[in-house]
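Standup, Tuesday
Yesterday: got the pipeline producing structure tokens again.
Today: sanity-check two examples.
Blockers: none.

Example 1:
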Amino acid sequence: MLVSESCYNDTMIKVFTDERLFILVQLKQQLIDAGLSCFIKNELLAGGTGELPFIETWPELWLHNQADYNQAMVIVNDFKKILDNGENAPDWACPQCGENNEGHYGLCWSCGHQLTPEAS
């Protein structure tokens, strides 16, 4: 979704940023699955890196409604734990479908089941 600056209002709030767009896309889907309305800002600015300050081109994940912030941050923090532990995490078997997954993945490749931090 493309959103112009004029579309922003004071009820929106940024919840996460990362240089890797695919990380934000995964997290955005988790927020949507939880019923939270959100969007990615700067989704198409990667081509501006070098011409613009790099931090200004990083994609950002925003909520449309600040009232969803606490619920969103539970999901964001769980996601960050999985990201932080992913490099050294052991492989895991999906509790839903039984498929094996490499440790750095937080979602089952086969059924899409999310690995919870407690299960990792």
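Example 2:
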Amino acid sequence: MTKKILVAYATYTGSTAGVAERIGQTLTSADVTAEVKPVDQITSLDGYDAVVVGSPVRAGQLHKDMLAFLGARQPQLAALPVAYFVVCMSMKEDTPEQRCEADAYLNAARQAAPGVQPISAGLFAGAIDMKKLAFPLRLIMKAMKAEPGDYRDWEKIDAWVREIQPKLVA
């Protein structure tokens, strides 16, 4: 029987949406279909066998829409296999210290939905496109000397998906 997995995400400028799309593509196989949707467009979890939920991190905070989704859907999510992922510039350098920092961002998700026990947490670098940022945020990024660029590691994302897929469909 074909399993159906929802990849739910929040995004600011599209970087996390791109990661979510890639996760959905990598999950899809002969016996798995994946549906990729922004969290604010999800009205029900009925019909899904598992859920992957992702958020960008901005100023050390997860996207409010992702946290609201987790809080509102906690009872349903608690009954399904769930994996989390975050997209943050902390992961531009994949070191133990940066992984610890990125994983700490998920504490807000854990607090929003304490009944959900994720099987895994993907920690990924994102992209900075100054043209997609609001003017005040561009100024902040320049002051922080943030280097524009796409730092998403597609091979790392694909490897994580291959690792979690059997757990999602078990």
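Quick observation on example 2: The chain is about 40% helix and 25% strand. The helical segments are 15-27, 64-78, 96-105, 107-112, 135-143, 154-169.
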